[in-house]
Amino acid sequence: MDRLQNARQMIGRARDEPATPALILDLHAVERNIAEMARRMAGLPAALRPHAKIHKSPILGQMQLDAGAIGLTTATVWEASAMVDAGLTDVLIANQAVGPVKAAELARLAGLARVIVAVESARNATELSEAAASAGSEIGVVVEFDVGLHRAGVRTVPEAVDLANLIGRLRGLRLRGVLGYEGHCMLEPDRALRVTKQGKAMTHLFEVVDHLAADGIECEIVSAGGTGTYDLIAAHPRVTELQAGSYVFMDAFHGSLIPGFDVALTVLATVMGRHGDRVILDAGRKGVGIDLMLPSPVGIEATTAFVDEEHTGIDVPASSPLRYGDTVELMAGYGPTTVNLYGRYHVIEGGVVTDIWPVMARYGSDTAVEKGAGTRV
Ligand SMILES: Cc1ncc(COP(=O)(O)O)c(C=O)c1O
Q1: Which among 181, 205, 223, 239 is the best mutation to test ligand 1's pocket, defined by most ligand atoms within 8 Å of the CB?
Q2: In terms of CB atoms within 10 Å, which of 35, 178, 237, 352 comes out highest?
């Protein structure tokens, strides 16, 4: 019996029964978050293409599509494979796909679905073009532009125009537009400063769009945005797509930026011991993502004192009844790096585990080995 089948034995058990640490997905809270974002986006000019790196689940992706999303965004080729192989037909990889294995996989996917990938270099464009030509498929491309994050992306407007023109000439590729992710704005807790910073970032992106237009190249896609800037980015009439993802689960970091979404994802942990007001849980940083913010207990009065590899310490009032063997749910500091630690979601409805859903494409290049696209060494 594989591990997933084994986990299915939990179906019908109470929310606090899975062996800990365990990933808990509150289905009704997810549904509320998906509906809430669809409602908020309905009044804004851009369309929603939710980022699937957060959930790595075609089931959740399909729920987002059913609520009106135009397609999905992914961070890796392997997440895109998981979505396309599950039958989802419109995926944008908001990242570079470098190297022959990824290029070949992308070319395969492009034969099955509408696949678009970000590109920042002539070398990568050529590699993708060759892979698509040999697979007989067409890969959609958006030129990635650095709008201030200083991560990926072409640095200057003339470089972006040159790259777009090259892509237009390469067989097997179709230029669809531009992408500029303003991740540095998410880190700005002050809303007024965030407004100014995202405005500046989008001005850079629209400058590229204008120069491309002057060269006769129209951008059908202008993609940007995350949960922390969704309402600002999606309000620009020239942005066509929003890449927000974390709203679906909510975590401590994103919740501090954008109120109004429910905590749909938690990590179930067990109290291993109590020493006065300090309670020690069996989920540490190998069980809950701590990027950007510490995890925090949900539904009880407690503050997080520390997070070690396999332990989290929380401080509770003397009156707290928490004791050895009790369970506590932790909201992740950062959802995406929490989900990636687990192979399955325990799906909860009405306080009971009603299903087990897999977390897909967690292993980076090992995914290629599993799919037979690479060689095991
Ligand atoms: C390229 C890209 N787009 C969008 C996002 C937005 O994701 P979120 O909604 O989780 O902030 C991210 C987050 O890291 C990203 O890297």
Answers
A1: 181
A2: 178
Q: Which is the closest atom of ligand 1 to the Cα of 336?
A: 10
Q: Is pLDDT at 373 greater than 60 in this prediction?
A: no
pLDDT at residue 372 tops 70:
no
Predicted confidence (pLDDT) per residue in 14-31, tens digit: 999 999 999 999 999 999
227 lines ligand 1 (CB under 6 A): yes
pLDDT tens digits for range 45-58: 999 999 999 999 99
CB 244 within 8 A of CB 227: yes
CA 323 to ligand 1 center in whole angstroms: 38
Q: Which residues contact 254 (CB under 8 A, 6 or more apart)?
A: 227, 228, 246, 247, 261, 335
What is the model's pLDDT at position 374?
43
- Secondary structure, 3-state, 101-132: HHHHHHHHHHCCCEEEEEECCHHHHHHHHHHH
Q: What is the DSSP letter of 26?
A: E
Distance CA 62, CA 46 (A): 20
Q: Is the CB of 246 under 6 A from ligand 1?
A: yes
